[in-house]
UniProtKB/TrEMBL annotation, chain A:
GO terms for cellular component: cytoplasm. It comes from Streptohalobacillus salinus. This is Ascorbate-specific PTS system EIIA component. GO terms for molecular function: kinase activity. PANTHER family: ASCORBATE-SPECIFIC PTS SYSTEM EIIA COMPONENT (PTHR36203). InterPro entries: Ascorbate-PTS_EIIA_comp (IPR051351), PTrfase/Anion_transptr (IPR016152), PTS_EIIA_type-2_dom (IPR002178). Its main location: cytoplasm.
From TrEMBL, chain B:
Its EC number is 2.7.1.197. It comes from Streptohalobacillus salinus. It is found in: Cell membrane. Residues 390-482 form the PTS EIIB type-2 domain. It catalyses: D-mannitol(out) + N(pros)-phospho-L-histidyl-[protein] = D-mannitol 1-phosphate(in) + L-histidyl-[protein]. One of its GO terms (biological process) is phosphoenolpyruvate-dependent sugar phosphotransferase system. InterPro entries: PTS_EIIB-like_sf, PTS_EIIB_2, PTS_EIIB_2/3, PTS_EIIB_mannitol, PTS_EIIC, PTS_EIIC_2, PTS_IIC_mtl, Sugar_PTS. This is PTS system mannitol-specific EIICB component. The phosphoenolpyruvate-dependent sugar phosphotransferase system (sugar PTS), a major carbohydrate active transport system, catalyzes the phosphorylation of incoming sugar substrates concomitantly with their translocation across the cell membrane. The enzyme II CmtAB PTS system is involved in D-mannitol transport. It is a multi-pass membrane protein. Its main location: membrane. Keywords: Cell membrane, Membrane, Phosphoprotein, Phosphotransferase system, Sugar transport, Transferase, Transmembrane, Transmembrane helix, Transport. Residues 24-351 form the PTS EIIC type-2 domain.
Length: 145, 482
């Protein structure tokens, strides 16, 4: 399920200049596909400004998201892999950014469930760490599903 | 230690009747307390601007009726619906309440406190029924139309049912009062007066029954006791004083303000919510009312006209010469009696809370820990806390991302550990159910969570997936289960 959501929504870059940029860049595929609009990206960034980096769900992995105030048309997820980690507030280094756009609090739970399986598995995390292209990343995720 | 576990297990598996009544009481309190501020706002307005108020103003007084008819019952229904069914429940509860309000010509407080939670329950059941059965992309449509259609039926139901119920209640109260007046033993009137007042039938009985009786008597002898039987501010004062000294924390803070508006402003409605949240205290009101009437009767005291609003000042202004002792004593005796009885009731409820429910204690403890700035969840001593856990709510800002991830992961871990019967769900902070045993929230959001969950145990975490505190919680739950 997660791999279906992510297909075509994965980007890999060497580095970004700020965590804000990582969110913008990470969310770009969702924006392009019409899942979300600009206002949702602003909401996600504002969210981190307001509540700090609680979106860093495990060390190294951030899941930027915000409440849907009309900026999400269709639930979706995109992924940005950084070679060089970027610092989120409270000195948290992050190199995997998974942007979540959720229409409401319940429509996307299959996705969340897969994500959860993925993130508790240290082997999978290690494999993701090594992966450098969209194909490699998708391969890791498909195997884990 | 192991004994303690055994005890907890026993109480957890078989909740006593008393525990159920307490849970019900807690529910009423949570429904009423957040809205006391609105009652006070209305009380200030009313005390000031009505025709017999301190600064009469016909224009501003236009707000008095609609506010108590619409705003206050809607708030109660909204809160009640929200407690049962989250934000969607709140909407359903309010829809139901407006049907009641329009269908009746008295403020529908009790009705709102029933239909609010009922509406929340309906939508919750419906949502559960269709859970995971909606095709992706249709969630919004189904969500809105389910409330729309069910709400429509709720509207019809509440509107058509309530009219007849109200007129039946009015008819019953009226004939009961007439029968009691006929016995000549007036203190008995309190048996009907006090419950009827709290259900906001106060104007109906005062202006519909007692004032006509009183005016008749005044024409004959120059004063009447009937003006005092339902308007004595003493019982309400005693009740509010009891809450001031022996109520729970929030009541203690709000009751003194209510006293001023009630006793000096004469707006009796201010104490009604306190009775609604601890229904047993109606006994204090009845005892106070009875002793007040008995005192008035003993001294042959009466007033020359209906005191409206029923403030102590209006009382004194309408007391004929020679009756001051009787009137003042009647108010005083009623205050003292209702204070004593209500205090006993509040203290009894509190003490039974304590020996019955160790959770209360643990909540207090976790609060203290929070105030010390170190919300730590740790070690053997705390294990008792988790014994009665059956609802854990993960919360975050939107209720869609981190909390969902946290809840899903934790649910899987529970399954793996073979721990069943614990509900783990995710919510937006403000939507999580009040009966959650444990709230899990990121540490950055603690303050906001604490605003919504004053009494619940809150576990703060650094990340929603692998936080050590969640591992500890899992171990505690596993330990208590075996």
């Amino acid at each position: 399920m997660l791999s279906q959501y992510l297909t075509g929504n994965i980007a890999c870059v060497d580095s970004v200049t700020s965590w804000e940029e990582s969110i913008r860049l990470g969310a770009a595929p969702l924006l392009k596909n019409g899942n979300i609009n600009e206002s949702y990206i602003d909401d996600m960034i504002a969210n981190v400004h307001e509540f700090g980096s609680y979106i860093v769900i495990i060390p190294g992995v951030a899941m930027p998201h915000a409440q849907n105030k009309g900026g999400v048309n269709k639930s979706g997820m995109s992924l940005l892999k950084l070679t060089e980690p970027v610092m989120y507030p409270e000195e948290k280094a992050v190199n995997l950014i998974m942007v979540l756009g959720a229409v409401d609090s319940n429509g996307h739970l299959d996705l969340i469930s897969d994500l959860s399986t993925l993130l508790v598995d240290d082997d999978v995390l290690q494999a993701l760490e090594q992966a450098k292209t969209e194909t490699e990343i998708l391969h890791v995720i498909k195997q884990a599903e | 230690m192991s004994n303690q576990f055994a005890n907890n297990q026993a109480t957890a598996s078989k909740p006593s009747v008393r525990a159920k009544i307490q849970a019900m009481g807690g529910f009423l309190t949570n429904m009423v307390l957040p809205n006391i501020g609105a009652f006070i706002a209305w009380g200030i307005l009313t005390a000031l601007v009505i025709e017999t108020g301190w600064l009469p103003n016909a224009h501003l007084a236009e707000m008095v009726g609609p506010t108590i008819t619409y705003l206050l019952p809607l708030l109660l229904a909204y809160t009640g619906g929200r407690m049962v069914g989250g934000q969607r429940g709140a909407v359903m509860g309010s829809i139901g309440a407006i049907g009641l309000i329009i269908g009746s010509d008295i403020p529908m407080f009790l009705g709102a406190m029933i239909i609010g939670p009922f509406g929340g329950w309906v939508i919750k059941r419906f949502d559960k029924l269709i859970e995971n059965k909606i095709r992706a992309g249709f969630e919004m449509v189904v969500n809105n139309f389910s409330i729309g259609i069910l709400g429509f039926f709720l509207l019809l139901l509440s509107y058509t049912v309530i009219g007849p119920v109200i007129s039946a209640a009015n008819g019953f109260v009226t004939s009961a009062i007439e029968a009691l007046v006929a016995t000549g033993f007036l203190p008995l009137l309190s048996l009907i007066n006090e419950p009827a007042k709290v259900l906001f039938l106060n104007n109906v009985i005062d202006q519909g029954i007692y004032y006509p009786l009183g005016m008749q008597e005044t024409l004959e002898v120059g004063k009447s006791i009937y003006f005092t039987v339902a308007s004595n501010p003493g019982p309400g004062l005693g009740l509010l004083l009891a809450f001031t000294f022996f109520g729970n924390k929030t009541s203690r803070r709000t009751a003194p303000g209510a006293i001023i508006i009630h006793f000096f402003g004469g707006i009796h409605e201010l104490y009604f919510p306190y009775v609604l949240m601890k229904p047993l205290t109606i006994l204090g009101m009845i005892a106070g009312g009875m002793s007040g009437i008995a005192t008035f009767q003993l001294f042959g005291a009466g007033l020359v006209a209906g005191p409206s609003p029923g403030s102590i000042f209006a009382y004194l202004a309408l007391t004929p010469r020679g009756n001051f002792t009787g009137i003042i004593l009647g108010v005083l005796v009623a205050t003292i009696v209702s204070f004593i009885v209500t205090s006993l009731i509040l203290k009894f409820e509190k003490s039974s809370d304590e020996d019955d429910d160790q959770l209360t204690e643990s909540i207090e403890r976790s609060k203290t820990m929070k105030s010390e700035g170190k919300q730590i969840y740790s070690s053997s001593d705390d294990s008792a806390k988790t014994s009665a856990v059956n609802k854990i709510s993960f919360v975050c800002d939107a209720g869609a991302g981190s909390s969902a991830l946290g809840a899903t992961t934790f649910r899987k871990k529970l399954q793996k550990a073979d721990l069943n019967g614990i509900e783990v769900k995710h919510y937006r902070i403000e939507d999580a159910p009040q009966d959650s045993d444990i709230i899990v929230v990121h540490k950055n959001l603690l303050d906001r969570a604490r605003m919504t969950f004053k009494d619940q145990k809150i576990i703060t975490i650094d990340n929603y997936i692998g936080d050590p505190k969640l591992e500890e919680l899992l171990q505690q739950l596993a330990k208590n289960n075996h």
